[in-house]
Task: inverse folding
């Protein structure tokens, strides 16, 4: 956020229900993607102008669903859930960790996927991130909505044809959650070309080279603004 504020942007980071210190933790398991979209809408309505929207991973799906019904000057998808959903991701996790996957379904909890720092690194971080950093980020992780997962799997997938907002689609070469091919498929669905950052993993905004991603976003947004002037 500081990076973009220093470059003249007004930045807001909504805390979705059931996350951080927001209300709804007791109902998180049954929270829907549409509930998260409503949270974004509630924040957007407090702003003087329609905001640029940026979403990472599941947040990318929230952004896509938001754009189906709400205008925005521009949007950015970072290592986002593709319009096809998370079936391919789910099958990859099931093949790598069948016992963990079984536990996820038995407990209706996604947390077992990141229950240790090593699992968190496998899912989200590259080898270039220090163990201390991984430990720090892992300590702040929490569960996610199981019903939201089902929405991402099949119940509430994006409808790109309903979106006219210009979108920047970025991915990471070492992402084990959404592959570069899935990022390219997302970009194609929105009539653009995906951009893949080398030597980076899923959490692109936390990786050691995050500034290269932020710079690309900043430059693209300024280009979009210039094109409209």
Result:
């Amino acid at each position: 956020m500081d990076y973009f504020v220093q470059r003249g942007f007004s930045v807001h980071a909504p805390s979705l229900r059931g996350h951080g210190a927001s209300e709804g933790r007791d109902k998180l398991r049954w929270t829907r993607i549409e509930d998260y979209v409503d949270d974004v809408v509630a924040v957007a309505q407090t702003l003087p102008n329609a905001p640029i929207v940026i979403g990472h991973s599941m947040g990318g799906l929230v952004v896509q669903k938001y754009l189906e019904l709400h205008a925005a000057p521009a949007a950015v998808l970072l290592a986002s859930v593709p319009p096809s959903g998370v079936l391919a991701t789910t099958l990859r996790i099931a093949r790598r960790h069948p016992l963990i996957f079984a536990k996820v379904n038995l407990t209706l909890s996604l947390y077992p996927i990141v229950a240790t720092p090593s699992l968190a690194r496998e899912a989200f971080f590259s080898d270039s991130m220090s163990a201390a950093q991984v430990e720090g980020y892992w300590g702040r992780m929490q569960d996610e909505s199981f019903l939201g997962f089902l929405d991402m799997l099949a119940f509430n997938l994006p409808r790109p044809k309903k979106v006219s907002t210009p979108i920047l689609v970025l991915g990471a070469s070492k992402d084990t959650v959404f592959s570069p091919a899935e990022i390219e498929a997302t970009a194609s669905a929105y009539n653009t070309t995906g951009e893949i950052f080398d030597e980076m993993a899923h959490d692109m905004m936390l990786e050691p080279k995050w500034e290269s991603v932020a710079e690309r976003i900043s430059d693209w947004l300024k280009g979009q603004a210039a094109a409209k002037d």
